[in-house]
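User: My advisor, Dr. K., asked me to get a structural model of this assembly before our group meeting. I'm new to this, so sorry if the format is off. These are the inputs:
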Amino acid sequence: MIQTEGLTKKYGDFTAVDSVDLSIPAGEIYGFLGPNGAGKTSTIMMLLGITSPTAGRIQLFGEEYTSGRLDLRRRIGVVPEKHPVGMWSWMTAGEYLSFFADIFGLKNPGKRIEDLLTQVQLIGVANKRISEFSRGMLQKLSIVRALLHDPDILFLDEPISGLDPIGIKQVRDLIIAENREGRTIFISSHLLSEMEKICHRVAIIFNGKLLAEDSMDILLLKLARDREIDIDLEEVPAGLAEEIEKLDFVNSVSVTENTIAVKVPKEGDYRKDISRFLIKKELIPLQFKEKSISLEEAFVTITHDNVKLLAGVGGKA
Amino acid sequence: MKKLRFTLLVIALAVLVIIPAVADVPVRKEELIYSIMAFLGKEYSGTFARQDAGTFYIMAGVDNFITIRKTLVYFWPITRDWKVDTDALNKPFEGTIEIKGKNMPLKKLKQVRYTYYNAPGEYQVNWKVFMGSAADKEWKKYSELVAEYWKAVGQYYKDKARYEAGLNALTKRISEARKKGEDTKKFLKDLNALKKPPEQPKGPSYYVRPLEKAFIFNLPPGEYTVRFLTKDGKIMEGSEKKVVVYKKRRANGVGYDVIPADRWTRPVQSNTPSSVLYIDGTTDLYLRPFYQDEFNDLYYNKTIKNDSRGNPNIMKWVRIQQVPKARVEVTRKGATTQVVLEKPYYIQQTKGASLGYKIVPFDPKKQGEGRQPSLRAFYIPIQRDMKYLKVSLQDKNGNYLKGSDRQVRIIIRSQNSLFILLLSLLPLALMFLVIAIRSKKYSQG
Amino acid sequence: MNYRLNAVKAISRRKIFETFITPGFYIALSVSLLLGYFLINGFINSIDSSGLNYGLNPVYELIAKSLSGAFGGTFVIKLFSEGPFLFALYIAYIPFLLYLTISSVFKFGFEKKVGAIELLVYGPSDGTSYFLASLVKDIVLTFVFLGAILIFFWITAIVNNLVLGPEFFYSCIVILFLSLAFFSYGIISSVVTDSAASGIALFLGISVFFIILQMGSFAIISGYVTNLSNVLAWVVKWVSPLFYWHLALSSIGYGNGGVFVVNLFLLLLLSVVILVISHLVLKARGVRV
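Assistant: The format is fine. Below is the predicted structure of the whole assembly, which you can bring to the meeting.
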């Protein structure tokens, strides 16, 4: 659905985006991650046609995309990070949405506006001036605006930033629901825990270069150095941790109340061996839990600690 | 003592007045100037271009007479005007003027003798210019006419003296006879035998300017540079000038002198074709139509006086001469068109204590022998309720003259001024209405 | 192209609606009509038995003296030759033109700064659609202004037995084209600057420069001068809307319809050139500040 080849943006001598290749298939929730100044916004601006690339090409829906292709841009919905209330403040939510429906050339948009406002629970304030809206209400209104023309791709820039937990859930549910209806979703966010919950695939950009792009499970697996197995026991006898640590395949052990966390190499499954060792010690494991690393940990790993590792785990640095 | 104090006061005042005047005595400066006798479309007028003036302005296609001389130039602060003192110094130069234009090869001009005069006929403007031998001939002819006139005047005074002497002798004889109680009827025969009083001879109806020598500038429109070469072929320093030669944009437009009956000394001119003349309708109007030509405001002003100011981007109408034997057509709303002819009128002082006058039709019998009409004009009666009338002009052949239309509108000082003021505030009322409607909508949200 | 046209239509509709629900438009219109009212009233009070007598009304005396001092007596005679409406039209037009242009430049700068234009660009629109919509709005409002002025002056004329005059109607046409050129200058001022304040400053600077240039070349002078400022003025006048406005009005004075139409066309051409430049600059600079 979105494909870039060698996408590059230079501002004078500074290279903001350096030969980035992206591939976003239809129907995915795609997370685009990167710290401030990594080239995230520059990439998005090019994808949205706001700025033109210095080099490289963008394909949208299988067609060459330039900023003049308003027909292709029409198939995109965008929720910017900040909602520019500014000059719209005199409008009611209904007028605001009608205005954008007008720009998109929608015929009889009343029903769609009503449905979407109902979906985000804003129908009750349709005649209220948007200058009186809270941040959460504005964010929901912005998503409704982006969905008005039923776009094939929805770009969301920090969609849940600044929202309260209920607002976050509402927006998250809305995103997931829209994706289930077949809409491709491109999210740029720094709230990694939320991204982890909703994204199918993520890309990580750093210093203008795309460091990683993969499905969430594979990326996390690739980036994990160890596999952590948490074992619940009735009681953790003294010295057990030290004994387990002496096992050949064990990298490290830690104890928290009745749980022993054992770190083993990520390549193998050592649950049988650990189980056998515990039974030998007349201890009965009540539960085995395998814990993978979080996206946040992976993000830190990939951007700071382990850049060299990337070449081997699918990064394109 | 009181008298002395008064005298001192008068002296002090006189000193106060005199000192600044003495201090402002203009400084006379010797300058090389161009004297310009320029044609203005209706008459000749003299001006001069100072040494500092880079340019002088003349009309195209007519004879303008230029001389170059040294004289004293000074600024006269009272009229804020530059003047020449030719009594103190007036040294004209003989030589050649070189003229060069963009599309004209270098042309050399020699001074020629010239004269000119205006001989008004049916039209007021009928200028004739003569140069060289033709000028000599014309001047000779005119000089002879003048000499003949003066001869006739001499004869007239002799005849008049003779007539008056005869008349006096007869009067004396009649009064002596009357004293003696004689019948004076016998003198009737002698009285009838006396010749009629001599008639005063009439001089030439035109004035021919005495012969002079000048460079004749008759050029097509454009910009030129000129310089003066002395007899020995040297360029005279400071003689280089730019000459702007211009033509009228439109000719034979029609303007009107509008004379209100209550202020005949203060006529206004209506020059702009198809313009509207607004009046308050309190008095009748007298119109005097004239032909006018259109010139560049700055150029024309500077042709009259080289130091004057003007607007180079505006054209102005200049009155040239009367429209002879014209007829004014007056159309009133809802009435048939009326043709008005020019008639003589007389300004009659009103009798009694109140000062004033009224304009009455001129009648030699009523106004008395020897009186002349005060004005010749077209009378347009005005009534306050007539609102609107249109005047246009026909020439002597009955042809409509283009651009002669004028609307005359009698303004109504309406009592509805407040209504108009409120009307101008209507948008504000609309604004409050819109704000109210919007507020209602928001409150529903 | 259809998307852009549709966007222009939608945005201009929104802008027109916004103008009609905010007080600025009504205040500017009222100020214009009030100025017209006072000038016409002053004119009526300056009429006596022989015509217009400026001395009868202190305001008119001041106006006549000032204009006469600056542009010459002939100018004043011509200005009022058809009545008060020509002068009143231009005086009423100035605050309205200022309101329209300054508010448009301000909004352009402000909407650009807060990202509102960017938001429009996310839709099937672009910066050019935005400024074209702004232009459409301003033109429509100029029509509204001229309509309101025409009705107001017409009623005033009927009530006081005045006449609007052909030059007044010609001027209404010229004003449309003149406004278009000024709106275009407003747009380019917004496009090349990053904030509303600098946009307004640039636009006012350009306008004042053109006005000074026009007044300078139109003022009465005492001599034929050619210096650097004259040469500069000669060069700059070709990009000044007031130059073509003056030529168009002069052509009415001597009844040359061809020259009138040519100058309207030149005003249009000037506007198109400025808009094309604005489009190219906006394309290069983008709508993000």
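One thing worth pointing out at the meeting: The CA atoms of residues 80 and 426 of chain B lie 51 Å apart.

User: Perfect, thanks a lot.
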